[in-house]
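Q: Could you fold this chain for me?
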Amino acid sequence: MERLNPQDLMLLWPDDLGWPEDIGALAILEGTRLLDPDGGFRIETVREVIGNRLHLVPRFRQLLYMPRWGLGVPLWVDAQSFDLAEHVQVFPLAAPADETQLLLAVEQLRTRRLQRSRPLWEMWFLPGLRGGRVGMFVKVHHTIADGAAGVVLLGAFLDLDADASATPRRPWTPAPVPSSRDLFKDNLRRRVLAAKAELSKFGHPRTTLRQVRETWPATREAFVRERAPRTSLNRPIGQHRTLTVIRGRLDVAKQIAHAHDVKLNDVLLSAIAGGLRDVLRGRQEHVENLVLRAFVPVSLHQGEQGQARGNEDGMMFVPLPLGVTDPVRRLQLIAAESAERKKKIVRPPEGILARNLVLQRAMMRLLVHQRRMNVYVADVPGPPMPLYLAGAQLLEVFPVVPISANVTLAVAALTYAGQFNITVVADAEACPDADVFAESLRNSLEALSPYRPHADAS
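A: Sure. Below is the predicted structure, expressed as structure tokens.
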């Protein structure tokens, strides 16, 4: 039985509070092979390609099953019936549509809640863009995958060549849903094993004490010693978002990182700090000596990147010194702090929190008052080479991440085929100046490079 792990569960409860935990990607496809002579989208051709690859992504034909009390935590079960047409659909745009219309359509699709009576994913194609291009928006519930695993999921349907041979479809027979008796026995077995694991700690006090000492510095720094300052960036969020995309070149971002002996993620965080500085100044808030906290997930997936599955993220909180005006000095300070925080990554929950669903849900309700982070930042490595779907090249890919609780702004970056593309996700009401932030972020990136690369923000 494939039960949700503690980290998966923590991503499930926000749905009940009005904070859908859906991750996604917006891609722009070259549309020549996807459109018929009349301009219609070849949806059946695409569904055939997707259907032939579903065996590579078992979660896409599984349901999230919620057992009744006493039978354990939720688990994944095979859908007894599955209709691909419910998950792969077309959302035509009024041609010739521009990027603003595309992003508004993606936000409209994002607000549609995934139905738990079906597998928790959707893939929408949006024909009608200028130049015969086609948008593609993929949405997956966060319980299925984190950022690294999400890249792998999308890659399962893509090819390295436009003329790649067709994948033969494999037969699929759903396994029956476990009985209440089987669920009870499995839950009892898991509880007994957990109890034995806890008791074994008393038999090895030195080992237990050493583990506590190793994890305590990260826990103390994340949840005890430091708090996020109060700013207008943290207020209860609503249901609607604005999406802004920023195009960048990976080689330029790497040149900046190499020139200053820092990591690519440090460059992103420094540019974000510059953007936040301008936003708060525009809101007439003081930024002198202000140090914000960025929540940064850290992938803990073992093995090769292409084998990532599920949720395996740690977390770190990186200080962003908004009072530092010099962009190079700001970058150096952030890089130094980031290097130290990587030594103290907070691991996924264990012990009582990992098993007590009531405690987890209670903690979620308190997040609307959290003071641990001001902004969410994700940086996900993607494939370095161009990829193709049904013979159509993916020209660009932008990540789409959720926001929740009182965090009104999130930034996600994804590398793909020489691109370093960034998406700004903001609460539409609480953060109406997201366009100002995006423009300032882009300018902050340019200020770090002597080459002054051109990048468009929309």
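A (continued): Confidence is low (pLDDT under 50) at residues 453-458.
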